[in-house]
Specification:
The chain has about 375 residues and is α/β, with parallel strands linked by helices. Helix content is about 45%, strand content about 10%. The two termini are about 35 Å apart.
């Protein structure tokens, strides 16, 4: 499908950035299935790998060796991000942008390259752009999160993930506030001092900071208040096991309100599901791999009610559409790479089992899987 068709000046592309601070919380896996679900609903969707230092979205989406990646845009081989988008073979409404794979220096984009990327991201014609960010709180990650129309913070029940989720939100907030008041020397020093204080040692709240800035410069204080009133990131709980897990994660929402004067919108929870691990091995988004598993049901509900915001009865129809478009186990078996003595890794592979589907298919993109 050509996304350049049907350009409409009144059409609004919605960019959703997925972050979370800590690695391993499932950002890429959620991003892949979120985008796939939207495409199943015939929404023109582009999933963008924004983890420039550790690109892996392409493997989750089934692209073993992407023909074009962000590296081609970075090197000016292509002047438009639209030109490096890869069409998904299964879904007409879905495209992906692969990150630069194993290229030194991509994790530390210069300001110039970052702004060029953001400008061209806005030029992509789609209904939804899902921006999968890397781990951590580097300025690149924070700025890309802020450049989106809405940000989604992914957190799992791990106490470290909960703490890092809160810290990520805090750093995003202070990054934007610093941009607002950067021209005022006294307030800049104040924000720097508070933002660099460790979370567990900080007694100041954003409300305290706002009042102090307002005392120094009323207009800057008003700009801060305007930003805080408009900044409403979303929170998604992933890998839920026990009922209490969700309550623990929601502590971030309370802390954000009390300490950061920020209203987090809770999207819902995706339960831990072994089907997700199976889908990763198959290099298929879990929503497509098995739309009837618990994780898929959870995410489908989030897509229909929180992102598309459709009513109860239309939501039921949307969920049926997604279930019908999922792959079957038989279809997947037909496309599996079969373990063979022709494999480059055969002698050194501890998983070798000739005649059966390869268990390490995700290594294919490293240097080519089969001998010529």
């Amino acid at each position: 499908m050509d996304f350049s068709e049907d350009r409409d000046n009144h059409h609004q592309t919605k960019i959703l950035a997925i972050g979370g601070g800590k690695g391993g919380v499932g950002k890429t896996v959620i991003a892949a299935s979120l985008g796939t679900g939207l495409a199943m609903m015939k929404k023109r969707t582009v999933i963008v790998d924004g983890d420039f230092g550790g690109a892996d979205l392409h493997t989750v989406m089934g692209f073993e060796k992407p023909k074009k990646t962000y590296f081609n845009f970075y090197n000016h081989e292509y002047e438009n991000l639209n030109d490096i988008l890869l069409e998904h073979p299964e879904f007409d409404h879905l495209k992906i942008m692969s990150g630069a794979i194993g290229s030194l220096g991509m994790a530390n984009l210069s300001y110039q390259h970052k702004m060029r990327f953001i400008r061209h991201l806005r030029k992509i014609v789609a209904d939804f752009i899902i921006l999968d960010l890397g781990a951590g709180t580097s300025y690149n990650v924070l700025d890309l999160f802020l450049a989106a129309d809405r940000g989604i913070i992914i957190v799992n029940p791990d106490p470290m993930s909960i703490l890092e989720g809160y810290n990520f939100l805090k750093q995003v907030l202070f990054r934007q506030i610093a941009q607002i008041i950067r021209s005022h020397g006294n307030t800049t020093g104040l924000i720097k001092k508070i933002s660099q204080t460790e979370t567990h040692k900080s007694k100041s709240t954003i409300l305290d900071l706002t009042n102090q800035v307002s005392d120094m410069d009323r207009q800057l204080g008003e700009k801060m208040i305007t930003f805080l009133n408009q900044f409403h990131p979303m929170l998604l709980a992933n890998m839920i096991i026990e009922s209490n897990d969700e309550n623990n994660i929601l502590a971030i929402k309370s802390a954000a309100h009390e300490l950061l004067s920020t209203r987090l919108e809770y999207m819902g929870a995706v339960h831990k599901d072994m089907t997700v691990n199976e889908s990763i091995q198959k290099m298929v988004p879990f929503l497509s791999y098995n739309p009837k598993c618990q994780a898929s049901k959870d995410l489908t509900h989030i897509i229909t009610t929180k992102l598309l915001q459709i009513g109860k009865w239309r939501s039921l129809g949307a969920k049926r559409t997604i279930r019908k478009m999922g792959k079957t186990a038989l279809e997947l078996e037909k496309t599996d790479q079969i373990c063979s003595v022709n494999c480059l890794y055969w002698e050194d592979c501890e998983f070798k089992k000739g005649g059966y589907p390869c268990q390490i298919k995700h290594y294919i993109g490293i240097r080519g899987f089969q001998k010529e």
